[in-house]
Amino acid sequence: MTLSKSGPAEAVQSSERVSTLELFFDLVFVFTVTQLTAAIAHDLDLTGISRMVVMLAVIWWMYSGYVWLTNAVPPDTALRRCLLMVGMTGFLVVSLAIPHAFVDNDSATAFGWGYLVVTLVHTAMFAVSGASRAAIARIAPFNIGSAVLVVLGAFLTDLPQIAMWAAAATLQIVAPHLTDAMKFPLTARHFVERHGLVVVIALGESVIAIGAGAQLLDLDLTLIATAVLTIMLAFALWWAYFGTDDEAHTVARMEALPPRQRNLRALTVYGYGHYALLLGILLFSAGVKSAVAHPADRLDAAQACALAGGLALFLATNVATRLTFGISPNRYRVGAVLSLAATIPLGMLASALAEVAAIVAVLTVAGVMEEQRYPDPDPEAGAAGTGEPPAATGEVRRWRRG
């Protein structure tokens, strides 16, 4: 595949579906979610949360750069596959360094150099894609500049380190608006599917958190009840994102947009928005770990807020995404977001199990009301006499029902 010699505006070829190597890459990347969850669960306070927010931003924006790149430059040659493997090793080193990156010099240094490897590989893959030297010259300084800030921050401590890494993340965030990113060829189906896979893999972290919290505990009814209810909450997040078949509508909306608007929408929804989704999953998973570890005990304010707040952040971002693409209904989801705040006192005054049970009740009521008020259409009946495929007709009716 080659990109336009005047810049990455035209692509001769792009991938419609996510490759297994990209999925493998995502599995390595999502290891960072596991590490960040462990770190935030250990230091669930303002300082710990601030560190986690900054690290996730630094890592997420570089990962996002790989999504954009492999969307237009499929890893279908030996050289590209080998480069992607090297990038994976860089992400692995970054992930291994996360738990102690702010308190141990060796871990901080490993984080910085691992991040530099990830960045250089991204630039190298861009270079072998056939893009013009001018395009590379516009994009590379931002990526490498961000990596340099991360490496320099590794030699600092406390607030200066956080500030340096925050500056690195900021540089990554503004880069698309100052380079050719808005002209980059974007295949909507691949892009939407890739981010959906990242979300479902990240949701697996909440399952891991259940197992981590239950380690060394007696498997009594209280623990089993808490574990079952928390897996129901993870299922509710899956349902919010995937259960109403929004993906086909999102792809259609993206494909109908002019290239620049399509890329801007992709940057907004799948850059900023999915960062918030992952942050919500992280907070929720940290809360789950605390709840399962002490199901009959009261949670402190940070633990109770993380449990409900992570879910609220995820659902609120999901609502914002649906509104962006004209998908409805959303009123019951908004109601669930507002109601989650009322469950926090239960965790603080009663027990972790009480808060989890209350959250399950809130999300169940919201889901049932949404399905009863806006039931799934009958695909066969909807297609009768239209000449359209039943599934497609059913999807259109669902999108218009709000």
TrEMBL record:
InterPro entries: Low_temperature_requirement_A
Keywords: Membrane, Transmembrane, Transmembrane helix
Ranges of Low complexity composition bias in the record: 380-394
Region feature (Disordered): 374-402
Residue spans crossing the bilayer: 21-42, 48-70, 82-102, 108-128, 135-156, 162-184, 196-217, 223-243, 264-286, 306-325, 337-369
Full protein name: Low temperature requirement protein A
Upper lineage: Bacteria, Bacillati, Actinomycetota, Actinomycetes, Kitasatosporales
